[in-house]
Amino acid sequence: MNQKFEEVRIEELATSAAEEVDALPFGVIGFTLDGTVTVYNATESTNAGLSPKRVLGKHFFEEVAPCMNNFMVAQRFDDADELDDIIPYVLTLRMRPTPVRLRLLKAHGCATRFVLIERRTAN
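Now predict its structure.
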């Protein structure tokens, strides 16, 4: 699988084994149409300090990341038929404000939507 934040494809994420997704150097959170988290990789677990047990099966925008339940992130998934955008963002829940880049991924024919989180820079 492509290891680059900007280049990894949603089809790769959706069909990769958990071990491959865990090996990525950025956070990966996948969720269903109704918002239930089904993918939560080891990098994001370490960076956020939340175990997969606390995240998997929970509603992403209501229980895991309510700071993303807004027009910049959640609404874009609702409004777009397909989505592949990178946006600067600041995470604020349960941590000091942390600048990141988010990559929002949604595609026809893919039941899982993804938020990728790169903590190195917000540029």
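The chain has a mean pLDDT of 93.
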